[in-house]
């Protein structure tokens, strides 16, 4: 039988390679698709979560010493009274900040104070006298209007900039636009740009404006809330802090109190930290503009390329590594993507949304597992179909349903393939045993006949006719016994047993009658210890021959005058037949193989009778096909006991 294994292996490898190309192509397409829609819907929210996690995992950076926040905090409110305060306090505060490089007041004075009109004039004079004060603008996107401070204050201020804080769709502040263009083509610079212009950092401001035209950068928050230098409003106003402290510094005046409502979630808030006040968000933005240190998003093509690279690596892992190593490799790849993303953000100021590559890498394992299993399943199914067509025994075995396994999954098919391979191995073993039987056991008596015939032709070694015929008859009978036993075993292994109700005591009595002549020649007594009528369902000819073999073996391998007893022991579900003798017994090293074909317990013992080694193999095959079992209990030189267990016939079937 020629083996198609190399061709089959090539076919399976071709299928696996084809599936790998398909899976790799699909993964690359998914990566590109996810990278295109990275900011939409759920994908955008997940990318934002990863961004917040990466931002929160940063090392805290030192706050600049020349940016100071004058906080309208709870302590100051408790000292000066309920908010809002009189504007004369702000005018007095500006007097304390005369040496500051620029002062940004994060308070909108949209309405005049009718109760204290002199306060507005005093504040306008203080702003004009200071000369480096920036006031805020608020751009109403719905009405498309720009809300400014009252004209008196606006005219006195050095500059103005819009302070709109625009959170992302999930309410978290991550980015800032450094300028806005109104429908009337009015350009509104950001509040921090106006402060830099006022503080004579014009080049920095212009550079930031030019760089921000291509995208809206992310704010690189230096630390959690309270990271910047912060002094209470009341302490500055009260003179507790000397004016020289603010020399050449950018000063931001804004709300910090818990009840003022000017706080927003930031990426650091996602890490369990508190929200950040609007004035501190302005401080972070001001420092980013001054240092030109923004977290920017690269172009779409760069993001797509960066997302595809780990997916390409994942595809190589799928093809070349084992399932376990593949799983560990993909997990390591996911961790590596997050680490590289962290390094890109904090070392190179780049935010590359990693969700496209993460999702595709996570999908790679189940997708490849599915397609590779399908390819293997189809290949195994085809091979099983071929085996069923070529080998009927394989077809019969594969028709047996395996409990707990679906007929269309890979474990079931592999189990069937394993059974088929075992059957083919058994067939190969049978073939080798048959060849050995033909080449050795069958040839031995034939060679003896030829040798005897050759001797008979020589006058000096010629035997008397009666002796010659007797020896010829013995060799012929030995040949016939070998052939008969071989055919009987082959028939027992191949045939489908036709079972019918039969009386076991009657069957055993017939077996003893068949063996009586052989036993009588050697004065051996045969005893059947009968019991109540016991019925079984079996094939009478096969069982009769099997029990006859056991009795004949007891006769052959025992002394003259031996005693052979057959006991029947009835149990609720089974019946035991014990065949006992006082013969030679079986050596301990031969008991494990005594029921295998061509194995004899006494083949090397002097004076042992001849045999084929097929008798007990036939007995075991027949008993097993009756859903029974046979075991040997033996002690050398003290005889053997063969114990046969067979299922009893139900009482309903007996009727």
TrEMBL record:
Pfam family, one: CHASE2
Signal peptide: none
Domain Histidine kinase: 437-650
Matches recorded under InterPro entries: CHASE2 (IPR007890), HATPase_dom (IPR003594), His_kinase_dom (IPR005467), HisK_dim/P_dom (IPR003661), Sensor_HK_Regulatory (IPR050736)
Keyword entries, A-Z: Coiled coil, Kinase, Membrane, Transferase, Transmembrane, Transmembrane helix, Two-component regulatory system
EC supergroup of this enzyme: transferase
Top-level taxon in the UniProt lineage: Bacteria
E.C. code: 2.7.13.3
Reactions catalysed according to its record: ATP + protein L-histidine = ADP + protein N-phospho-L-histidine
Recorded coiled-coil stretches: 370-397
Transmembrane segments: 20-37, 300-319, 325-343
PANTHER family: HISTIDINE KINASE 1 (PTHR43711:SF1), TWO-COMPONENT HISTIDINE KINASE (PTHR43711)
Protein name: histidine kinase
Organism: Alcaligenes ammonioxydans
